[in-house]
Structures are given as structure tokens and as C-alpha cells.
Design a protein that fits this description.
By secondary structure, the protein is of the alpha+beta class. The protein is 44% helix and 16% strand. The chain has 13 helices and ten strands. The strands form three sheets. It has a four-stranded mixed sheet, sandwiched between helices. β8 and β9 form a beta hairpin. α4 crosses α5 and α5 packs parallel to α7. About 2% of the residues have low confidence.
Length: 279
């Protein structure tokens, strides 16, 4: 995860502004700099997507840039590159990759700086749609990577649908799966809270109307028997305190939501009447 909008890639003029030609050549021979195209150099630690974008003449953009910053994103469909009219770049279509180019204008102090976090989110909204935007936005808010000023700018340029998603967003979701579930359940009008502490159970991912617990297990979770036993104990404790638990993994939430949604709706129909009406 990189929490800066800079990457370890420089143009020749940027390097020459800080050191001599001879020093640059020595660094190249020593392996401290890598020439990735004419007039463009990278450190040995520069990440692969940033180098690929620089080979195109741009910076990583959209979900590629969001992932570079550590934001939660949906399945990434290849390389996204931020192109700017004042940069040298390939003008012909790439034949050896599935890159997506973003030509929106924006300020930058260096040739290969990333877009700002608000601009990255705007690119995601325009390119990948509302759900991808929403989960990345809540991730940015959770990590403190977008300021109030950034949110105001984003609201001013994104349009009515985007503004509605911004207003609905919060900073308490621990993962994009929680954000996605809360957004998709919005139409039902339930009280859906994330990262709720429940007596006897502990912290749960989502709680619907104070009764139904939803646990969203990410991609990294979990194949071992010990975590599985821990989850069963948590579910049993939840039931002992009058709650019902449903547990979904990444594939169910992202790729088989119809089934997950039917399970949630059917379970909510079974809730006690006093719970349903807040008594």
C-alpha cells in the first residue's frame, strides 16, 4: 500500500534537476535506476502497474490507482492509465494489453504522479459504475485518504447519482464487502449498521434492524479448521443472545448476490414482531 500520490518514476529532466548526467548514468549502471522507456526511469522498487502505465506514457488511474493506495476495489479489469495532453504518450492502440485510458485533465506536479484520491474516485464512478465507486469511497473515508475538501470537490463534479452515494457513505465499514452489502440492502429500508459490538459475540460486520447479523468473509478468509470453529462459537453465542447469523464469502456477495439477497430477505421475514417494529 502506498499512501502518497507519487511513484518512484521520473523523467530525465526531473532527475537532471537534482543531479548530474554522470551521477544518473552511474546509478543506472549500479542498478539504482532502471530505464523503462526513452527519457523515463524507475527505481528498482517501483510497482509493476506503475511501470506499465509509465511505458504507456501515463500514471495508474481508476481502480488500478485505488489498489495502489490500498483502497478496497471490486475485481480489477486490467490496467487503467491516466493520460494527460501535456505528456508524451503512445497514440496508437495497444495491441498487447487490455489497458483502459483515462483522458480527464487534472493538476500534477510531476510527470508520473497519481491522480488525487477524489479524482481517482471520480474515474471509478465514470468507468466502473456506482457500486465500485461506493466501496472505494467508503474505503477512502475509512483510511482517511479523502478530506472534507476533497469530498466537496467530488460532490461538485459527480452529478446527482454520485452525490446521493456520497451522502449515503460512511467511514465505519471495515471492508468493501460490508459497504457493498449495505448499499445493496438500501432499498429495503432496514437499519443496517456496520462494525457493531454485540454482547456475548463481539464485533460483527453488519447488523440489520438490531437482530440479523451478517458476516462477510473476504477472499483471504479462511481455510483452517481453527477459524471455522471460532466462527461457529460466535454464531452460537449470537443465537444464545437472541440474534440470527448469516455468513457469506466474497464469491457469494460479489458474484452470486441473488442467492445471498434471497437468504437475507427470507430470514428477515422470520424476525420477531417486536423486533420488526422496534418494540
Amino acid at each position: 500500500m502506498c499512501t502518497t500520490t507519487s511513484v518512484e518514476i521520473w523523467t530525465w529532466p526531473e532527475l537532471r534537476a537534482a543531479q548530474s548526467r554522470r551521477a544518473i548514468e552511474q546509478r543506472v549502471r549500479a542498478g539504482e535506476l532502471r530505464r523503462i522507456r526513452r527519457g523515463v526511469y524507475a527505481s528498482p522498487d517501483a510497482c509493476g502497474p506503475a511501470i506499465s502505465a509509465a511505458e504507456h506514457g501515463g500514471s495508474v488511474a481508476c481502480e488500478t490507482a485505488a489498489r495502489h493506495l490500498g483502497l478496497w476495489v471490486l475485481d480489477e479489469p486490467g490496467l487503467h492509465v491516466w493520460m494527460r495532453s501535456d505528456r508524451h504518450h503512445r497514440t496508437s492502440k495497444c495491441e498487447d494489453c487490455d489497458c483502459t485510458r483515462h483522458w480527464d485533465a487534472g493538476p500534477s506536479t510531476r510527470a508520473f504522479d497519481l491522480p488525487s484520491t477524489p479524482r481517482i474516485l471520480l474515474q471509478i464512478f465514470r468507468c466502473r459504475g456506482g457500486e465500485a465507486f461506493f466501496v472505494a469511497l467508503e474505503s477512502a473515508r475509512r483510511l482517511g485518504l479523502i478530506s472534507r475538501r476533497g469530498l466537496r470537490w467530488l460532490r461538485s463534479v459527480i452529478g446527482r447519482v454520485g452525490r446521493d452515494l456520497i451522502d449515503f457513505s460512511r467511514a465505519d465499514a471495515d471492508s468493501g464487502l460490508e459497504s457493498l452489502v449495505r448499499l445493496r440492502l438500501r432499498e429495503y429500508g432496514w437499519d443496517v449498521r456496520t462494525q457493531v459490538s454485540i454482547v456475548g459475540t463481539g464485533q460483527v460486520d453488519l447488523l440489520i434492524d438490531g437482530w440479523l447479523i451478517i458476516e462477510a468473509d473476504g477472499k483471504e478468509n479462511h481455510d483452517g479448521s481453527s477459524p471455522r470453529h471460532r466462527d461457529l462459537v460466535r454464531d452460537a453465542n449470537s443465537a444464545a443472545w437472541g440474534h440470527v447469523s448469516l455468513r457469506f464469502d466474497y464469491a457469494l456477495i460479489v458474484h452470486d448476490w441473488d442467492l445471498a439477497e434471497r437468504a437475507i430477505v427470507s430470514t428477515m421475514r422470520l424476525r420477531p414482531v417486536e423486533r420488526a417494529f422496534g418494540a
